[in-house]
Amino acid sequence: MNLVVNMASESDVSVQGHGVHTAYLELATALERRDDVDVVRGRYGERVDCDVYHLHTMGTGVWPKILDPRTRTVVSAHVVPDSLVGSLRGARWWRPLARRYMQWFYRRADRVLAVSGTVAHALETELRVDPGRIEVLHNTIDMAAYRTSPEDRGAARLELGFDDDAFVVLGVGQVQPRKRVDLFDRLAREHPGMTFVWVGGIPFKHLAADHGAMRRLMERAPENLRFTDVLPHPEVRRYLQAADVFCLPAEQENHPMCILEAAGVGLPVVARDIPEYDDTFGHDVLRCRDATFGEALVHLREEPLTYRAWQERSRRIADRFDSAAAAERLVGIYREVAAAASSAG
Question: Other C-beta atoms within 10 Å of 104: how many?
Fold first, then answer.
């Protein structure tokens, strides 16, 4: 008999244009391709007759599910307290309250899926979640959907108006201090011979951290830097296909979907050297500090052998984080959780 899973992310009915929503869609789609699971999406504000709830967000719309005593719950931990600082207005001040709420929410789940080892550590040490309930399950995507041929790349560049000889450096994400979009802007000013594009905007508007400063940064961008605002996901993929290099200078990330997408396309990835990447991307991304991002971009543009070597490292990322393998493992987790409920009953 098929497992029935109610998978929910309140981003279905609220703000999209961020990695949690993409992760939810990718995983739901991968599960729906299988013939041993029936996925029911959403149904916010209500209980659902199912074997397992799988929640990706923690707002009031999923409270009836996390509080439902009849059904076991799996929660994907995309966010920990440190994720809020530099993302939402005043987060440094209300972080302690958010920490207490996250602690309550995650500790109610039967299984918490950390998207990285760093998140797992925060769940155990800061949020005091029982380590026996924590499991690391990295974000994944359908890599086949991102595979890009030379013809795909040429068509995308023509569609988006990039010259054949342009060296396009792409960033993806919300325009917020944590992403260090200010550094991306500085790189564009320091390298006028390159074309820089940041795909994203400020979906949370005035709730976002430093909204005014981020808006001014977008308005005053140099001529070789384009901000697209929030785009539908197929259009994001077109920008990835048209680019030469992916660059993410964010100071805090857990397991960003945009790096997976860039790797799926085959772009070399330049990212900040942060510990969150130690157990995920390792040395398959070119890890930089503020002072070395520009040098890395120049090497990739001017040294074809270096460029191809980092393309090959991105292929390793694509091999590791394909959604089919994650769906297989997740079904096993669901069965284990559901079986525990049956034996307890």
Answer: 12
- Of the candidates 138, 154, 139, 168, the one whose C-alpha atom is nearest the C-alpha of residue 246 is 168
CA–CA separation, 256 and 241 (whole Å): 18
DSSP string, 237-252: HHHHHH-SEEEE--S-
Q: d(Cα 99, Cα 152) in Å, to the nearest integer?
A: 45
pLDDT less than 70: residues of the chain: 14-19, 83-95, 202-210, 341-345
How far apart are the C-alpha atoms of 78 and 114, rounded to whole Å? Answer: 7
Full-model pTM: 0.76
pLDDT one-digit tens code per residue, 216-225: 888 899 999 9
User: In 3-state terms, what secondary structure has residue 301?
Assistant: helix
Burial environment of residue 6 by CB neighbours within 10 A (0 to 12, 13 to 18, 19 or more): buried
Listing DSSP states for 228-291 in one string gives: -BS--HHHHHHHHHH-SEEEE--S--SS-HHHHHHHHHT--EEEE--GGGTTTTGGGSEEE-GG
Question: Alpha-carbon distance 135 to 54, whole Å?
Answer: 14
Please report which helix (H) or strand (E) contains residue 281, including its range: none
